[in-house]
Structure formats: C-alpha cells, structure tokens
Amino acid sequence: MRILRFVGRRLLQLIPVLLGVVVLTFLLVRVLPGDPIRTILGPNATEEDAAAARERFGLDQPMWKQFLDYLGGLVTGDFGTSIQSGGSVTAEVAVRIGPTLELVVFSVSLALVVAVVLGIWSARRADRVGDHSIRIFALIGNSMPEFWLGLVLILVGYSVLGWFPAPSGRVDPDTNLTPITGADLVDAVLTANWPAFGSAAAHLALPVATLAIVIVAPLLRSVRASALEVLHSEAYVAAGAHGLRPRTLLRGYLTRATMVRVPSLAALVFGTAIGSTVLVEYVYSWQGFGQWALRGLLYRDYPVVQASVVIIALAYVLVFLIADVVHAILDPRVKI
Questions:
Q1: Can you tell me where the transmembrane regions are (predicted)?
Q2: Residue 90 burial by CB count (10 A; 0-12/13-18/19+): exposed, middle or buried?
Q3: How far is CA 153 from CA 61, 79, 166, 212, 297, in A?
Q4: Which of 174, 207, 262, 323 pairs as cysteine with 267 (C-beta 3.0–4.6 A)?
C-alpha cells in the first residue's frame, strides 16, 4: 500500500509537469526561424497556396486558439496532423515508437548487464591490470560519438567481415513479417515467424551494439565506484572478518549493495539512450521515433516536434518513477 500511495502521488505530480512541457514546447517551436508551410510547399508556391495550407492546418488562427485546439486534442490522445505528411501524428507515433523502444530496451539491458558484471569484477581487482583495462575501455567508450562508432561497426561487421546485413532497414522484406507492435523481434515471436526473427535479430545487432557501447561507459564507471564504496564499508569488512564464504560476500553483500544505485543510473542512461537513438537510427536507416522526430524538426513540423517532446518527457518521468520504486524495494532504508 505504501508503494501504491507513492505511485499515485507521483502520477498526480505528472500532470503539471507535462502541462508545463506542453506550454513551453508549443511556444518554443513557434519562435524557431523558418516557415513550415513554405518549407513543405517549396519556393515556387503562390501566396494563395500558402494561405490555403495555413488554413488547412489551423495556422491562420490566433496562437491562443491554436493552443486550446492542441490541448483539447491531447486530452483525447490526438496529437494533430503532420504538416509534412498530412497524416495523423498519433498514427505515425504508433508506427515509429515500437522500433525505437525495441532498440533502447535491448541496448540499455545489455549495457546494464555488462556494466554490473565488469564494474564489480573491476572493483574487486582495483589497481590491477584488469581494472586498468576496464577503466581504459570505459574512457574510450565515453569518448566515441555514436555516429562514428556506428559507421565503424558497419565498415567492419558488414563491409569487411560480412557477418551482418546491410544497414538498410529492420528486417528482410521477403520474410513477410506481419507488424503488430512495431518491434520486429517481438512481432516475429508473436507470429511464430522464425525466419523473420533471425533477420530482425541480425539487423538489430549492430545498432544495439553501437548504443550499448556508448551508454555502458558512464554506467561502468558508476557501478565500479559504488562497488568500491561497498568493499571499503564497515559492514562488508565486518562480514568478511566473521568468516563468511566469498560467494556469500559477493552475492549477499557486494552485489546487492551495489545494485541499489543501478535503478537510478538506469533511468539516467535510458534518457541518454533516447537522445542517442536519433543519430543511431539515421546511420542504420532504422526508421524509428528518433529519425521521425529529427525529420519533423528539420521541416519545422510543429505537431511532430510537439508530440516528440511530450512523449520523451513522459518517458523520462515514468522511467524515473519505476527507478524510484525499484530502489525502494532494493533498499528498505529508503522512505517513500
């Protein structure tokens, strides 16, 4: 009940946060330089064509009227109509969000496993060769841009070795995959389409590796620092002095105490991963949410940009809410 009350309070606090995001985004996108209508129609369009387009998308109305119409649509789950495509933004989000979530979830999960295992291993061998190697790896990973790393992996994995498919999509078209969630790997399992499953996994490997390497570096350093703090704590030293077995010390003390900080770190890197997907999706032609949002920003597509920011803000607060709940479960000292 205590956790449920905490979740209820945080969900109520979510309303003013999202309202503030909606207001700021609505105002900021309209002060950006450039006219979205002229960008879409091109330089040869007449004033009559531009006026008709503005009327169609409601851009001829006063700003307060545009905001009230947009807010009313949000209440019903309608993000408006894309200026670029003329389609429903809600429908486009439904198509694009699945591939990006699939990429982010797999990348963050892989990065968490690698960071926890290598971080604890490195802390137990502090100032030795293995520890220095892990720290150098983290430093290099933290210094590499996503797009450069993606291009290198494509060059090595596809062009040189030929182990992975070309970066031209998410699944081979001849597998006849039926889309359900938009996440191709999940859809392949749901439809028992195993050739599509293999194709989707092969296409997913390099983008996941790119994103995981980038976000595992800060995670690894934080996990190592947390594990070192536990190793030097009085509780751990006392437990070792009482003659507990090394396996008990590792699992019952070191790993559990180190994992207490992992939910908060995971929430932070989840946000980093969402931002990094823009470049990763562009490099791998992933056709996901990040690439869609970037295209909307380049074309000054107001409804697309507004929907992208609101969804990212919603993802942030929900992920941090989950992290706080998991943190409270792992650490009974936390009061919520």
A1: 12-32, 103-123, 144-164, 200-220, 265-284, 304-330
A2: middle
A3: 49, 37, 11, 13, 28
A4: 323
Tokens representing 298 are: 């380049």
Residue 119, burial from CB neighbour count under 10 angstroms (0-12, 13-18, 19+): buried
| Closest by CA position to 295, among listed 285, 305, 306 | 305
Single-letter code of the amino acid located at 84 = Q
pTM attached to this predicted model: 0.80
What HEC string does 133-188 produce?
Answer: HHHHHHHHHHHCCHHHHHHHHHHHHHHHCCCCCCCCCCCCHHHCCCCCCCCHHHHH
Which whole-number Å values give the CA distances from 7 to 20, 125, 149, in the listed order?
Answer: 20, 40, 39
Q: How far apart are CA 258 and CA 262, in angstroms?
A: 7
Q: Token match 């150098």: residue?
A: 136
pLDDT tens for each residue of 57-113: 777 777 777 788 888 878 887 787 787 777 788 888 888 888 888 888 888 888 888
The tokens describing 245, both together, are 């077995």
CA 335 to mean position of chain CA atoms:
28
Q: Cβ contacts of residue 251 below 8 Å, gap of 6+?
A: none
Q: What local confidence, expressed as pLDDT, does residue 185 receive? A: 84
Q: Answer whether 286's CB lies under 8 Å from 59's CB.
A: no
- Residue 273 binned pLDDT confidence (cut-offs 50, 70, 90): confident
DSSP-derived 3-state class of residue 215: helix
Please give the pLDDT value at position 333.
64
Residue 290 has a pLDDT of 81
Please, is 304 exposed, middle or buried when counting C-beta atoms within 10 Å of its C-beta (0-12, 13-18, 19+)?
Answer: buried
